[in-house]
Write a structure and sequence with these properties.
By secondary structure, this protein is mainly alpha-helical. It has helices at residues 4-7, 10-21, 26-35, 46-58, 83-96, 103-111, 118-148, 157-181, 196-205, and strands at residues 62-68, 76-81. It has a two-stranded antiparallel sheet with strand order 1-2. β1 (62-68) and β2 form a beta hairpin. The longest helix is centred in the middle third of the chain and has 31 residues, at 118-148.
């Protein structure tokens, strides 16, 4: 039997992360994801999200807590996160945060990394930095060697781009780790408060 973490999709992670905030029905999930512009990370459609919710329920990662009907609107089933779902989404973020071979998964893990404690994030991003540094050194050495051999520059443009991107990410990551080492960046599951903006956003998504 597969470990739930191995069957969890990026959309599944986003659904479980939403349910860490509060119990919700799928319609609210879709509206919140779009209001927060999470559709920049992956395509969000009603059908995909509802299908994802059904798969997560079958896997025991979330469960129904009630069915509501408001006026002429269709029935809306509200879901809650199970203990297994809470553990699985955290395990997924921990697994994907240091990896350098899955861009979409990393971006979602980074977006949800505030669900981890600060020390955990620093450790995991430190592992990522080590891997990025090795990749950057490999590309830089490869470029220098290719140029020394007289390889035509037009066939090196992709390698040049990758070397520049790796350098830029290393500089961004070093800056983030510096911020995490200080006190100016609130972090961790307990760092959030129910601000007026957040409450208004939730209320709008429930309409």
């Amino acid at each position: 039997m597969k470990d739930p973490i191995d069957t969890l999709t990026p959309m599944g992670v986003m659904v479980l992360a939403l349910l860490r905030e509060a119990d919700m029905h799928p319609y609210e999930m879709v509206r919140l994801l779009r209001a927060r512009h999470d559709d920049r990370l992956l395509a969000i459609t009603n059908g995909t999200l509802y299908h994802t919710v059904a798969r997560l329920q079958k896997a025991g990662l979330l469960d129904e807590v009630g069915i509501d009907r408001d006026g002429n609107r269709p029935e809306r089933t509200t879901y809650t996160l199970t203990d297994a779902g809470r553990d699985t989404v955290i395990a997924w973020v921990r697994r994907e945060l240091p990896r350098v071979d899955s861009e979409t998964e990393f971006r979602i893990a980074l977006a949800e990394s505030h669900n981890l404690e600060r020390d955990d994030v620093v450790e995991l991003l430190g592992e990522r930095r080590t891997a990025l540094l090795a990749a950057h050194e490999m590309h830089s050495h490869g470029l220098a060697k290719a140029r020394a051999k007289g390889v035509p520059p037009q066939v090196l443009v992709e390698v040049e781009r990758e070397e520049v991107l790796l350098d830029a990410e290393l500089r961004w990551l070093d800056a983030l780790l510096t911020r995490l080492d200080g006190d100016d960046l609130p972090w961790g599951p307990s760092a959030f408060t129910d601000t007026d903006r957040y409450l208004a956003q939730r209320k709008a998504a429930q309409q």
